[in-house]
Write a structure and sequence with these properties.
2 copies of one chain form a homodimer.
Chain A (H helix, E strand, L loop, with lengths): L5 E3 L2 E3 L5 E7 L4 E9 L2 H18 L4 H17 L1 H12 L3 H26 L6 E3 L4 E7 L3 E4 L14 H8 L4 E4 L5 H17 L7 E4 L4 H8 L6 E5 L2 H13 L4 E4 L5 E4 L1 H20 L11 E5 L2 H16 L8 H16 L3 E4 L14 E6 H6 L12 E7 L2 H9 L4 E7 L7 H12 L2 E6 L39 E7 L21 E3 L2 E3 L8
Helix pairs in contact in A: 2-4, 2-6, 3-4, 3-6, 4-5, 7-8, 9-10, 13-14
């Protein structure tokens, strides 16, 4: 049995922790042989100090240095793709193809390269210069960033390679990755590659570090530590809110992605025009990857009527016919089953599924539940319990007024989808519902399921609480996701040679956008006349 | 005796509250005749509902509508300048000239006009369009904003006219102003003018509202209410952190400006070159307006030596010679005196002053304290107690190492100033100290006192906690301060006619900067070929 070390200050070192955990193969429900340490506080403090030293060293490096690291890392990952796919499949049960190999890994290296581009360009930092007062400001590296990766994306959101990691590095910050306990070996392998890339591109020791787990108390101390600049967290609402409280108490920026059930409205005209196609789209979106996506459509809202009944009938058929895969782990199975029980306890009826099992290892039947609009309005909070996985709740409302009232009861979500008739028959209802949905979601979709998060500048993978902790930020999309990890630093009357390069008169790249005397420009500061 | 109404939903209405308070003339320490209500919860809820209705109405209005309101308001304020100055002088004791009439009121109308410009331009909202995926996003109005104004700026930070107000409106949000109890009549008069401007520019009822005071419990309910979009708060650290906790718990964005002692480093070469001039600069900055500025220099750090002693001697002389004015109120006098006592209790020595009185009404002697670097390092928290007013603490360190250690003990501040020799004699010490100071302050100054906050795009009136609640934002400077009140809203595959104007293919103003397919441009989306 191998006991894995932690990555501290540029070295793989045996942990000083005395407690360990194993990963589990979710398909066999058997523990994998290797064990990983739970880091004690003294070790976390060492990590923080090493990260702080690294931050001091790189603070004024040009963006190109971080870009080189990110690009080298991406290339090295591609060279190790086979191992990464094999390990992640073993630990998570996610399909090798297309999911891990063809979708998530390319997305992850693409993110690293987009982050590199943002770092090299430097415009994300919004350099701003006022010549009359000689005041200049920029979003500078915020300090070491702790990134807590979730269970459901072993690559794209992983603490040592995912979107928060890439964004934090692009902003010029060292990262302390907190691996997820369901895929420690995948995370370890990324950290191994990251360290090689860091050495190859001459990043300082402590620029990328990895710990696997902490006690709950130490987690709270960690996210509120003075040496930490910010936190990125993707995971459960319960653990996330505990960390949020600890960080908020000391004004430490913490960016969270917590929970989202992603309401989908199928308005009557759309159902009349293309109900069968919608049943197919919805079933595919809801069951893909066993429904283990942050943007999984967990709530369908419709008006009562024969087309709605037909949609439901077709969907139940599809849910029954679709194969049941493997969930990420025992905790996911338990939370999903508990979630379904909570929905039933508050008046939802099972249309199909509802029991654990049905697939290899940890699994749960494809589950569809139904509830009346009246019932939803009565217990909005309980009926928005996230049943994370291959499950969804249909809300059937008797009238537009009831649909509107149910909508008013929605919590914050990452996404909200509205399907309407091509003919315009749903436009009045859209006009009634959309303004309410709009304020409750980060991304509003038309005629499209919410799964599938394009990594483009305009993406918002964010939304009001409890989807995230602040509705002004996105976790996906460059350069916008980078600014979360910048601290606004103003220089007032500071001598030219002491200014960061991006604030000196000469444009350091020749192409960085800066706001000079109120105007966006890529030029140098004009010479005084 | 007049009992003043509150401004709710476009109407001045008698409050339903049963409790009232009076303003006090700080120069006479006598209560002014009028009384103002403490609003009960039912009234606050009405205010929230009216603001929410107003938000629904204006959500998609072009920025020019908000600009017209802001500009009309600024003009109407100038027409009432005389009354505003007279009332604010009576309530706050601040000098009519230059302070209120020549400095703060022009700054305030200037802020409104700069906010108007940002609103009209629309670039602050960072419209972003990706044509290949047809995903588009923008910072949209976050919802009604509650603005809590502080005691020390009756105009420029006032809840119904100051910087947070202007920023929230420029972002397209209704504002609920919470007046400060030390200047209710000033605030009432602004609200009266704001209502006239709102009517003249056809803003909806409930776009600007005013309440004066709430119970502590209701304050917490208010800032965490589902109908509220965000909060801007400038005031004491104790009340601010209570509101922060309440808002954070439900993920409500709250932007705070809490406390700051604004360390000033006078390095040995600078003292040798121009010690007497520095004593004059520092005394002027520290005593101006009785030191009641967020950026007042409350902590001076120096190395021991004859020039340091001479600086202290000259400063004591100036502090003794300078007239003592009037503090804003009894609470300010009490907090200042308590702060001085705390500093003394933790090892600081009084060089001059220290007692209440010495001026008309509420006042305190100009106070200078001194402490050793060793003592400061031993009790950094207590010795950073904010003694808000005409008081400052000198820290004399024995060595560069001690100065560095003291610097490591600093909390987050709005500003940090470093004075160095023109000759370059202090450059090594600057290089040692600056990186540590830089991460702890929002604005770093060279050879300049921190008082005086220019309203320019590059200004950062912000900084790490406890100066503010998040180091990525500024409360002063357009357009940057506006983005605090935007919520990131993404539109995925949404039909063109349903998009906000700024995200449609045509650039709505012809000059708004948008990021289209990765490039910043003022052009329309190119027609498909």
């Amino acid at each position: 049995m191998t006991t894995h070390p932690v990555l501290i200050d540029g070295q793989w070192r045996p942990s000083t922790g005395k407690k360990f955990f194993h990963a589990v193969n979710p398909k066999t429900m058997e523990a994998l042989p290797d064990q990983y340490p739970i880091s004690p506080w003294s070790e976390i403090e060492e990590v923080l100090q090493a990260a702080s030293r690294a931050a001091d060293i790189v603070r004024h490096w040009p963006g190109s240095r971080f870009a080189e690291f990110l690009e080298t890392y991406a290339t090295m990952i591609e060279e190790r793709a086979e191992s990464l796919v094999a390990i992640a499949h073993l630990e998570t049960g996610l399909a090798v193809q297309p999911r891990l190999k063809d979708v998530e890994l390319p997305r992850t290296t693409n993110q690293l390269r987009q982050a590199a581009k943002a770092a090299r360009d430097g415009s994300w930092a919004e350099p701003t210069i006022d010549t009359a007062t000689n005041i200049r400001s920029i979003l500078a590296p915020i300090g070491p960033v702790a990134v807590f990766g979730p269970n459901n994306f072993p690559y794209a959101y992983n603490g040592v390679v995912g979107g928060d990691f890439a964004s934090a590095v692009a902003a010029g910050n060292p990262v302390i990755g907190k691996g997820h306990s369901l895929h420690p070996e995948t995370t370890r392998l990324f950290a191994e590659i990251a360290l090689k890339a860091a050495v190859a591109t001459k990043m300082p020791n402590g620029f990328v570090q990895l710990i696997y787990r902490t006690s709950h108390d130490d987690g709270e101390k960690f996210v509120s530590h003075p040496l930490l600049g910010a936190v990125g967290y993707t995971g459960s609402r319960s653990a996330g809110t505990v960390l949020k409280t600890a960080a908020d108490r000391v004004g430490k920026p913490i960016y969270l992605e917590l929970s989202s059930i992603n309401p989908v409205y199928l308005l009557p005209g759309a159902l009349a025009e293309r109900g069968a196609a919608l049943a197919e789209q919805f079933s595919t979106s809801c069951l893909m990857g066993m429904g283990q996506f942050c943007t999984n459509p967990g709530l369908i809202l419709m008006l009562a009527g024969p087309n709605t009944e037909e949609f439901i009938r077709l969907t139940v058929e599809r849910f029954r016919a679709a194969p049941v895969g493997t969930l990420l782990g025992e905790s996911v199975q338990k939370n999903l089953h508990d979630g379904i029980k909570t929905l039933v306890a508050h008046g939802a009826t099972l249309l199909t599924g509802g029991s654990t099992g049905g697939g290899a290892g940890y699994s749960c039947q494809n589950t569809l539940l139904r509830v009346t609009g009246k019932q939803f309005i009565k217990s909005p909070e309980a009926l928005q319990t996230e049943a994370f996985g291959n499950s969804s709740l249909v809300v059937v409302c008797e009238s537009a007024e009831e649909l509107l009232a149910a909508t008013h009861g929605l919590e914050g979500n990452l996404t909200g989808s509205l399907y309407t008739a091509e003919s315009g028959a749903d436009d009045a209802l859209y006009a009634l519902i959309e303004p309410v949905v709009r304020q409750k979601v980060g991304r509003l979709l038309n005629d499209k399921m919410p799964t599938g998060v394009a990594v483009v500048a305009s993406m918002n993978h964010g939304g009001p609480f409890p989807a995230t902790g602040h509705p002004g930020f996105t976790a996906v999309g460059f350069p916008s996701s980078v600014r979360r990890f910048g601290m606004l630093q103003c220089y007032d009357n500071v001598r030219m040679a002491r200014l960061p390069a991006a604030l000196q008169d000469k444009n350091p790249t020749g192409s960085t956008w800066r706001r000079i005397d109120g105007n966006l420009t890529q030029s140098d500061v004009p010479a005084k006349t």
